[in-house]
Amino acid sequence: MTTAFDANQVQPPKPWYRRGDVLTVLIAFALGYAFLLFGVDESTRFRTRLNPDPDLTFDWMYFWHMVPLMWRGLLATVKATVYGFTIAIFLGLVFALLRRSKLRPVSWPTAFVIEFIRSTPILVQLYFLHALIRTWDWYSPATITILAIGLGIHYATYCSEAYRAGINSVDKGQWEASTALNLGPVSKWTKVILPQAIPNVLPALGNYLVAAMKDAPLGIAVNATGILFFANAIRGGDFRAVEPYMLMGVGFLIASLPAAWLVRRLERKITYERT
Amino acid sequence: MSAPDTTPYTGTNGNGAAGVRMRGVNKAFGTNTVLRELDLDVDPGERVVIIGPSGSGKTTILRVIMTLERPDSGTIEVGGRQLYHQPAGDGLKPASEKHIRSVRSDIGMVFQHFNLFPHMTALENIMLAPVKVHGQSKEEARTNAFELLDKVGLAHAANQTPGQLSGGQKQRVAIARSLATKPKIMLFDEVTSALDPELVGEVLNVLRDIAEEGKTTMMLVTHEMGFAREVADRLVMFDHGQVLESGPPADVLDNPREARTQEFLGAVREH
Amino acid sequence: MDGLLLEANQYRLLRDGAWVTLQILGLAFVLGVVLSLVVGVGRLSERRWVRGIALVYVEFFRGISSIVLLFIVAIAIPILLGVSQASILMLGSLALGANMGGYGAEIVRGSIQAIPKGQSEASIALNLSNTQRLRYVVLPQALRIILPPFGNLTIEILKGTALVSLVGLADITQAGNFIRQQQLFGDAGTDRTILFLNILVIYFVLAQIINGLFRLAEWRLEKRFSGGEHLTPLDLPEATK
Lengths: 275, 271, 241
Ligand SMILES: Nc1ncnc2c1ncn2[C@@H]1O[C@H](COP(=O)(O)OP(=O)(O)OP(=O)(O)O)[C@@H](O)[C@H]1O
Ligand SMILES: [Mg+2]
Prior knowledge:
With 271 residues, chain B is of the alpha/beta class. In chain B, 35% of the residues lie in helices and 25% in strands. In chain B, the strands form three sheets. In chain B, strands 8-9-10-3-11-12 form a six-stranded mixed sheet, with helices on both faces. Chain B has a four-stranded antiparallel sheet with strand order 2-1-4-5, covered by helices on one side. In chain B, strands 6-7 form a two-stranded antiparallel sheet. In chain B, helix 5 (167-179) packs parallel to helix 6 (197-213). Chain C has a single domain (2-239), classed as MetI-like (MetI-like fold, Orthogonal Bundle). In chain C, 76% of the residues lie in helices and 0% in strands. In chain C, helix 2 packs across helix 4 (88-113) and helix 4 packs across helix 6. The radius of gyration of chain C is 23 Å and the shape is flat. The complex binds adenosine-5'-triphosphate and magnesium ion (MG). Residues 29, 32, 34, 52, 54-60 of chain B line the site of adenosine-5'-triphosphate (ATP).
């Protein structure tokens, strides 16, 4: 007995905007963004309410009572990271497109700029950017914005490499097939290339986001608040270094380990769905 | 089940070749039992060819003897010494790594896919174990290595890396490499089946030479029936992890007793 | 402001800073390579507890930011243990090297796993010990896979060395800060952007040198795999002629 093939019974895969898991992630993203936009205290005053016991090299009471201050710094660092990375995602796309350009006067200088930014320290880049922006009298952004721009430019170079690798990973035959099917450039990119490239790119972007978060404490270079700003402020105010720096380490791990774990999960889920 | 028709003797013979005695060996991968209660004896200096259908466990026997795969139960003796056990009081206890390495030095193996070290020249491939494991001087090892390369007809390729060699050449170097440590028993697992047909002959010639010298016991898994008939003292037909029948090649090939053997030989001859 | 260059004495300061940067980079690199190998191999150990420790190491040092780590190692820990901060250069290198080890270990682990199983089996058949197998067979082949990402990692460490200026070391970046402060007192109009642009170029040049060195190493390694010429009868030793 053979069953007749009934085309009506075959469910097409749901489009992304109707998939529960994708929507959950998007909503979480939107809420997170809104929170960072309105819910983060960016004041640069970090005052302790407790005096450390000078006889102890490590005062636990003092350590614990700083947790809310550390949290405030950490949130500011995360905010700068997210802002910066938003810039990186779009600027990276621009870099990648310019780099792909068939005009050598465009693609070569872009390649050089990418290589230059990628192989020099973001700390010095921030000093440079700070100095540069301060010479302009028509634009004086908040320090956290300068930090975000710095992170954005730096990680845009990494993102552009991720895009490039993602596009290159799309099989050559797919390009040829699109041409053979006479698809226009828009359908070619939106229907064939990008749907295949994006899953390759997402995990790399995730990794760079985590990396950007590790650089975001460098906001101190431009006087932007953050988790390191918090620790340095305590050290300057109370002349205690051990507790704030240790707390900074703990707080940082609490934020970065789950982030790294999420990225790995995403990576695994994508590989799973593609096989 | 036919009992092995040779007298088991697992010491070493005058030539220095070593025998093998397997008793009650079991090996399973998950739920797939590959060797079941296997008893197999190989005399010192004997040349045994193992044949059998794909998946019957031929490779696994060799790998278990080479200690690449650990049996689930049973004992294996090589050259009169237990391989996976060592004496403890009156009985046996699981062997230490040191004991295994000591017995293992009597065994050599040649693989289907050569497994030469790609970052070393042919000469370096051959010299590695004599120098690093057996403590030979570099000069001595080099002289021996050249002799072995000459024996397999590849002295001119001494400074070439596997990437520069053809399949047949690679396999000849691999044979020379495993001869370099003077093993008392050598295991060959389908050493010609990854080769282009026109390269099979050169490798079989080398195997023939080794067989004629008679310095080492040989266990070969092969689908080359003509070659088996020519060099084997004994042919062992293997099926479902057990010896189905065994005897002189002429007997097994021309008058197989078991229906499964007839079937298998029929299938092989058709090629 | 004349052009894009600094003054000679300012370059001299930067040169001294570059020397400190290179020292830290060298120390961190050596430590990082050793840790990468030890931890990377440990990740594949047969012993559970070794694997566990290696995993914790990797997760910790990849999870924590090198800046955060630097402040903890170079400032908090010396105070906590009551030791002097004298060798802050060592401590800075230690932090950067440990950080590199976390990333390097994963590269090493992946490269070892990429070596075909047959290579290990042949080593066992030749009766090499586990250490010999690693030393003579697995790692030399893994190196081919390791080198390119290690080049990138080394450049990341070079970039990371700039952070030591934040804990008081006189590296290139710190030399830049010093020059900037001098300028505050003297000629106030001097362009700070030019100063930092010069420093960026120095880092860029150093990074390109590292890049070149790694390319060279890759090229030499590749030569090992590509082997030599046919020998003529004249080349063969007496015994085999
Ligand atoms: N490492 C392993 N893990 C799981 N199963 C295995 C493994 N090695 C072998 N097997 C299984 O054990 C069985 C016997 O394998 P073996 O390689 O010994 O057969 P063979 O007789 O050499 O076959 P062939 O002629 O195809 O080489 C097969 O079913 C194989 O799938
Ligand atoms: Mg087999």
